[in-house]
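Entry for the shared binder. Reason: the reviewer on the internal report wants the predicted structure included alongside the sequence.
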Amino acid sequence: MLGELILLKRRALRRNVWYKALSRIERSICDLTIRGISTIRSGKLLNVIRVIVDKLRKALESPVHVLTRTVGRELAQQIAQVACSWGYLEASTWAMDERFARFLAICYINVPEYYKTKIGARDLSIQP
């Protein structure tokens, strides 16, 4: 856990996310944990570190990856359903294809705002 925290701190500092994503107290907890503890024994400290690690992971995640998870997969599912309804049964695998979802997410990023519509029940006008 400490090794992962050290790597996340380095990446966050490199990408200028460390000071934006974490409060002063959270940064201090991380720094003191890295400097002074070899293994985390306290359950409370472990829970706090997990929350901080989750925050850093979320802040370091690329916009394309976020859009792939949200918009790309939704679009892939809808396209696969349409293709299956037309009789192309092999299209059912498209819904789970990560590369196809990424392709659709990148296409979605490049579509002008006035062409973007609501897909399903969610509004997918996410700014990268």
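Summary line for the report: The chain has a mean pLDDT of 87.
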